[in-house]
């Protein structure tokens, strides 16, 4: 049922994109043919692709960029799959990390970026990040744009009312572990009568499962989601949070979530670095009331995206020039200064522009160090072609329990059954 719903959205989006391509509409720019002075760029929403394109055009006014924000990350990946099958592709596409593996398995559908110069710059990126777009034959189909260092955003004003510490270092000490995080939540809810955290799926499960050394696949690429200790621990902790009664039951990015955030109906959100922009956009009047503390467990990564050039692109050189300029260490550092997108280029992690970066919306929190510190000692896991589907089904099962629609004692088995039905294994 869910797959059909997503497919319908993708069909509509892809049809709209095809019509736009036929008509030449471009939201203020034109595709300009295959003359090397323009390129068509597909991105997903919520990551300020317009800002990145505008920054580039300011430096390269001779270049025309036809930008289309297709939909969310999964919808964009689905639209790309359809476009690859139909042969009408953009020159450049942004692919979210969890959606990347299925494309890496089909490197013939993309330009091998080594032919454009990727072999000379691959050392600029975290080795575990640049390995993700590298196919078995050695070809590189994408260049990293960012990583998703992890932290916890909390309402310091609401913590004060609950009698909890408000200083970010003291708050971090409240939850060295996820069990301690849940216990803190119970204290907050007992003192205020309000929920502590927005939801268990996004702010507990999705965080814990991204902190281990193995997730849904083992290093050899075998599916292990059903027997992974890390996955089961994450799932159980999320259900523990639900049972503790500390969640607001508001699924991330929904209208209810946004409204509850504005009203202060919960005090905590798990905040990978890319989440900060969503908090600002959804609750602008709460500026200065938020702060940022360390993630329980200390480290982890959730997120990150890649720019790829599909085979058949009309303007691959213009697309590569954009990648080379915007995703260099300096380009990523400059973009962090404007959009808070955490660089995947470790050479800039000690740069004063990053280490001194503070965010006044979040009470002057030193986000440059908080988020890069969360990557230290990280031992990355393999992301496989069905990681997104698997994660979605586990999260759905948790949400069903949270919403009173599922039995916690049967939730794990239900999720595993749904996963097997969805991916066939």
User: Any idea what the shape is?
Assistant: globular
CATH architecture of the largest domain: 3-Layer(aba) Sandwich
The structural class is alpha/beta
* Top CATH class of the largest domain: Alpha Beta
Rounded to the nearest angstrom, the radius of gyration is 21 Å
Strand order of the largest sheet: 2-1-3-8-4
- Full CATH superfamily name of the largest domain: Periplasmic binding protein-like II
How many helices in DSSP terms? 19
Number of domains: 2
The amount of beta strand, in percent, is 5-15%
Fraction of residues in H or I helices: 40-55%
Order of helices and strands: HEHEHEHHHEEHHHHHHEHEEHHHHHH
What is the CA–CA distance across the termini?
19 Å
Keywords: Signal
Pfam families: SBP_bac_8 (PF13416)
Signal peptide: 1-20
Protein name: Extracellular solute-binding protein
Describe this structure in words.
- The protein has 425 residues and is of the alpha/beta class.
- The protein has 2 domains: 38-147 and 303-356, Periplasmic binding protein-like II (D-Maltodextrin-Binding Protein, domain 2, 3-Layer(aba) Sandwich); 149-301 and 364-423, Periplasmic binding protein-like II (D-Maltodextrin-Binding Protein, domain 2), CATH 3.40.190.
- It has helices at residues 2-23, 49-59, 73-86, 101-104, 118-121, 127-130, 156-161, 168-174, 178-192, 200-208, 229-243, 255-263, 275-282, 316-326, 329-339, 352-355, 367-373, 387-402, 411-423; strands at 38-43, 64-69, 92-96, 143-144, 151-155, 268-270, 290-294, 305-308.
- A 5-stranded mixed beta sheet has the order 2-1-3-8-4. The chain has a 3-stranded antiparallel beta sheet with strand order 6-5-7.
- Strand 1, helix 2 and strand 2 form a beta-alpha-beta unit.
- Helix 11 (229-243) packs parallel to helix 18 (387-402).
- The longest helix has 22 residues, at 2-23.
- It starts with a helix and ends with a helix.
